[in-house]
Amino acid sequence: KQEVTQIPAALSVPEGENLVLNCSFTDSAIYNLQWFRQDPGKGLTSLLLIQSSQREQTSGRLNASLDKSSGRSTLYIAASQPGDSATYLCAVRVQGAGGSYIPTFGRGTSLIVHP
Amino acid sequence: DTGVSQNPRHKITKRGQNVTFRCDPISEHNRLYWYRQTLGQGPEFLTYFQNEAQLEKSRLLSDRFSAERPKGSFSTLEIQRTEQGDSAMYLCASSLFTGDVEKLFFGSGTQLSVL
């Protein structure tokens, strides 16, 4: 069974710092990996999607990389801002019992950026 | 594109009652997923549909849970004889699956409290 682990579980930093959030998975036979942001009590907002054939994706201050061989993805946030405060979740699409590829989530990293 | 819509946003019920949630996906999306999320955890997969066909169900989906997607449009998730352990955020996501890139879009969720 695919296990998705996110480290650290929580992070508190001053504004302006560059951050690295980690996502690791146990089965390298993934279809894709998607990073999400979740504000308290809200649904998930998609940030970046990396296909299994890709190495990285970038959007604004965000960069996500994927290394299937080591079972890792990192989300890099440049010049963090208080508005970046949220929980960041990664979802790895893996093959389920029925043969379909099902997005499996980690527990997330709770980020607080202080002004 | 009006996004994924979930109703109601909040539901408070007494133990033993039945509840039903509705999800309206993005109009052209052919796949629809249901997840459950408890505090401090990542979303857990419950079930998904491709058009009107329910293709996979998690072991988490006990016989008290049933989901439908008539005509491949909106979906409903019903919980019968609710228990306090059913208290959670129920999230719906949709996607356009073409055999290539598949990106999930989430709704705002339905927060269920069972008293």
Report on this structure.
The complex is a heterodimer of chains A (about 120) and B (about 120). Chain A is an all-beta fold. Helices cover about 0% and strands about 60% of the residues of chain A. In chain A, strand 4 and strand 5 form a beta hairpin. The model of chain A has no long low-confidence stretch (mean pLDDT about 90). The N and C termini of chain B lie far apart (about 35 Å). In chain B, the strands form 2 sheets. In chain B, strands 2, 4, 5, 6, 9, 10 and 11 form a 7-stranded mixed sheet that branches. In chain B, strands 1-3-8-7 form a 4-stranded antiparallel sheet, with no helix packed on it. Chain B is built from no helices and 11 strands. Chain B is mostly beta strands and about 120 residues long. Chain B is globular, with a radius of gyration of 14 Å. Chain B has strands at about 5, 10-15, 20-25, 30-35, 45-50, 55, 65-70, 75-80, 90-95, 105, 110-115. Helix content of chain B is about 0%, strand content about 50%. Classes of the chains: A mainly beta (about 120), B mainly beta (about 120).
Question: Low-confidence parts of chain B, pLDDT < 50 over ≥5 residues?
Answer: none
The rounded distance between the terminal residues' Cα atoms of chain A is: 41 Å
Element-level helix/strand string of chain A: EEEEEEEEEEE
Q: Report the principal-axis shape of chain A.
A: globular
Into which percent range does the helicity of residues of chain A fall? under 10%
Q: Which value, in Å, is the CA radius of gyration of chain B?
A: 14 Å
Relative helix content of chain B: under 10%
Shape of chain B: globular
- Biggest pleated-sheet summary of chain B: 7 strands, mixed
Class from secondary-structure proportions of chain B = mainly beta
Work out the number of β strands of chain B.
11
Distance from first to last alpha carbon of chain B: 36 Å
How do the SSEs of chain B run, as a string of H and E? Answer: EEEEEEEEEEE
Mean pLDDT of chain A: 92
Q: Which spans of chain A of ≥5 residues are poorly predicted at pLDDT below 50?
A: none
Helix segment count of chain A?
Answer: 0
Q: In percent, how much strand structure appears in the residues of chain B?
A: over 45%
